[in-house]
Structures are given as structure tokens and as C-alpha cells.
Sequence to fold (466 residues):
Amino acid sequence: MAPVTARLVSESKPYLVPGKVLVKELWFEVPLDHSDPNSKPIRLFGRSGVKYARPIVEPAEVEQRPYIVFLQGGPGFGTASPQDSPISSYFLERGYEMLFLDQRGTGLSSTISANTLELVGGPQEQADYLKFFRADTLVKDFEAVRLCLTKDYPPEKKKWSTFGQSFGGMMSLTYLSFAPEGLRESFITGGLAALDKGPTDVYTATYKRCIERNNAYYKKFPEDVATVKWIAEKIQELGGEKGIPLPTGGFLTVQRFMTVGLKFGAHGGIDRVHNYIVRMKGDLDQFGMFTRYTLNELDQDGDWDIAPIYTLLHEPCWCFGPGVAGKWAAERIGQSLEEYPWLRKDWAGPASLGDKPLYFSGEMIYPFLFDTCSELMKLKKTAQILAEYDGWAPLYDIAQLAKNEVPVYAACYNDMYVDPDMARVTASRVKGIKVFETNVLYHNGIRARPEEVIPQLLKLRDDTID
Fold:
């Protein structure tokens, strides 16, 4: 990796929060383009946390604990505070100092939104700017921050550990590919992405997982087969051609309604979708329309408007190198499947399905989101430019991963978002990796059931599994 630089702009005085965690707030400055140190500087925000225990006798000097940095999933979401993360208690007890750094464009780190992108310029300028917000550049940010924080550390403490969830796991593979010298060890959960499969192959696999979860949903709630189609018909009736206006300015269409299946990939997701259906049916039965509360719930589902990077760069994060473009792969693949006729322009509507269920989508990004989500409407042209772009930098170095020397400990789930069959292939290509695999946990295992995931990873690390 080419030299990278970061500057520590400010560091708050440590403060104690409930749970005996000592927290600091940190601001860094890095160049937009690490290959050009004189390019526009951007700000990164993070919080560090250490376990606090008041000593009987104050030590002569404070011992610096080894860092472990959390790589957030998404892409497009900021990190939690140290005291709020489900992984903190496990690693603080192990003597780590935890760093939760918002990736560029997320949280408080040079936040991406429609109005901040307007400051950059028009759609082409915005797209060119966003090309610096994928994993290849994020890893350079993190490595620059590591070098900045540890410049005065003894050699044995200059490296740090990473914990990557979902997209953060994909970042971990990029880190292992291009800057392994900065890593002591790497933990990955739900993020063993395919190394050389583009969006078309990825969505071909994940649609199959999504169909399985739809079948599980309708098996648990068979009465919803008819109810979902009836609600879809009512959305068409009440919304007309454009859709039902949503509180923040978007529109509820049948297509937008079907995206709530994104929740199927998480623990409790099937029940959450059913609760939407109960509420929507209740509104229609009682009032013949949807209440503000119901529309607000649906409007906020998926976080489409508050995390635009998730939508803008989702397919590009699967574009593993030059010559690969997204080109709305999720829509193209879905249109070819008999379970997803609602993605086709010639669809005759819910009644045309007969006794067949209406299938929800999963973690797929579609062009219609830029017609139905108020924030994304402003970014439609930018999204199209990114969808057509095929000059992406490489995300992985397969040869380097094959000779990897950094200890890697991973969890592989019954995953609707990151296909487990592809994950197994990836694991076989990373030298020395140890994998905990289970079919009873879903993608959000570290949030829903950390007590079942993290101890298993630590057992792999401690080599206590026979």
C-alpha cells in the first residue's frame, strides 16, 4: 500500500460513562485521495474506550493497551459508542482499547447526504467524489489513523486488531490484502464475501436465500399470503400511478412495500414484517387508509434516506475490480425470476398471481428507490453514473490472501445477505483462517446473540476448541 497519512485534529479529555468505560472523542484529518496528499482534506470521527477500574495505588505511568478497531457494516452507517456496542464487554475484559471510527461519509465523518453532496457539484462531480468512499479507500483511512495513533508506541503495540461485521468483514479482507503489516489479528462476522464474483453472481445466489426466507415467512403466517396481496392492491388503489405520499416526501408503492423483506435476514425479522402486515391490515379495516404512524414506520424502514451510501455504493461494493459494473444487477436478476414479477414493467398486478404468494425482496438495491425515497430522489442521476462505472480499483489480492500470515477468526451464518456457500469458498482461499459456522444464527448474530458468537471466536483465538 502507498504511504498514507492522517493528522490528529483534536482529542477530548477522557470521561467516564456508566458501565465503567473510559471514553475519548477523537477527530482526524485525511486527504480525500490518499494518492494525492494535497487533495481536499476530510474529517474522520471516532471514540475510543477502555475498561476503567480505580486502582488502589495509582501507577507511575498509564500502560497503553493494544487497540482493536471495529469495522462497521453497511456500507453507510456510523458506529456505536463504546458503551453501546455488544462486543465491547468481551474485548474490554481482554485488555484491549476499543476504537469505534466512523467510516468516511458515515456518522460524524464527513457525512454524505443529498445536501452535503450538493456542495461537491453536479451528478458527475458527486459520482467522482463517491468513488473515494469504497473499501479500498476506507482501509487507507484506517491504516493512516493507526499510524497516527501508534507513532510513539513500542514496536509490539503498533499493530492493531480488527473486528469486521458484514461489510466491515469485506473491509477486513481488503485490509488483509493490501496492508497486512498493520494487523495483529482479524475477527470477521457475516462478512466472508466472494473475492472474484461480481454483483450478478452475488445476487443470483442471494435471491435463492431470500426466496427460502419468504417461504419460511409464509409457512409461519400462511394467512399472510392473501393479506399481503390484498394490501398491495390497496396501495395501488389508494396511491394511483405515483404512490401514497409518505411523511418525509417519498411514496409508498407496491415495489417500495416489498423491500421490507430486507428484515428477513435478521433475527426476529419474520415477525417484524408480520407486524407491519397486521398494522397495515388493521388500518385498512378500520379507516380504509393508512395512518400516519403506519406510514412513518414504513418510511423509516431500511434507512434509505438517512444512509444514502448504503444505496449508492451497495452494488459497487461487490465490484471487485476493473471491468466490473453494477448496472442494477439486483433488478436484472430479479426480473428473470418467476417469484419476482413485480419487478417487471408488464406485471399485471397482485390478482394475476392466483394462489401464489407475493415475494418480498431482501438486501437488494433497485432504481425505483430513487423515485420513491425523498432523499434519494435528489441523487438519481448520480446513482446512474455509479451504476454504469466499471473502472473500480481492486478490492482484494487473492495471491496475498493465499499466503496470509495474520490470524483470522470468522463466523459464518445461515445468511441471506452474504451467501454461505460463497463464504466457504472465500475461507478456503485465506491461509490460516479459522471459521465458526452455524445454521441457527442469522446475519445480525453479534447484535442479537453476541453471547453465542463472540465466545466462539475467542475460543478459536485461544485455540481451546479440540
